[in-house]
Amino acid sequence: MALLREQFGKILAKSANSIWSLVVQQATKEDLIYTIICAIPAGKVASYGQVAKLAGYPNNSRLVGRLLKV
Predict the structure, then answer these.
(1) By CB neighbour count within 10 A (0-12 exposed, 13-18 middle, 19+ buried), where does 13 fall?
(2) Which letter does DSSP use for residue 41 in this model?
(3) 42 lies in which domain range?
(4) What is the pLDDT of residues 27-37, one digit of tens each?
(5) What is the domain count for the chain?
């Protein structure tokens, strides 16, 4: 979880003064969740709860699961 938080923080830090910050402000819950999921490195895992917490919605782990349903 710490590695994922660090990597996601680096992504946000790189883009803090760019269009990315505007996109994040306009993003939906689902967009943020998908962005975090895409930032998980190959071979690493994160629980639905961890992803929801990183997105700023700690009580929405079921939403993460629903979005990942195949």
Answers:
(1) exposed
(2) P
(3) 2-68
(4) 788 988 998 99
(5) 1
